[in-house]
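Here is an idea for our session: we take a single protein and study its fold together. To get us started, please write out a protein record for me. Start from the sequence, derive the backbone structure tokens from it, and show both lines together. Go ahead whenever you are ready, and we will take it from there:
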Amino acid sequence: MKLPLITVLLSFALFSGGCGFQLRTDVELPPEMSKTRMVINDEYSQLARQVKVMLEQSGVQFVSMDDATAVLEIPVDNVVTDVLTIGDNARVREFRITHTVRFRLLDADGQVLLEWQNLRQAREVSFDEQKILAGSREQEYLEKELAETLSRMLVSRLEIAQVGSG
């Protein structure tokens, strides 16, 4: 019984290593970001919380404006749901969730470290009116997934500022 399990685990290790798979390590951010102020309309949004966690894991300390060595401005963090199709009974059949983010990075003196960046992700969903509760949960899940994806993209773009300043 243990032999098949060991075989499966070893196979997975070989295949994942052979395809170049690597766990994501800490990102290299600009040194100015060691003490960062994040300016965003809703600091409790999915995106804001996810970005904050990811940056803190990379050694960024979030501080007040007076103590900041960098300012991460995120003036646009919009989640929009659009109806794509409506059924014969005048109910929604398909919809699209779109999450758009716009941000830039400044140093403490207001000098631009990373110009305005725009990110956008969308997912289309088929809605089954027989499963209304599952549909709302799916929408919540998709909104969270979009925020996580955009957070990873945002942090990756912040690495560009490291490359550009280094």
Observations:
- Residues 33 and 85 are 45 Å apart (CA to CA).
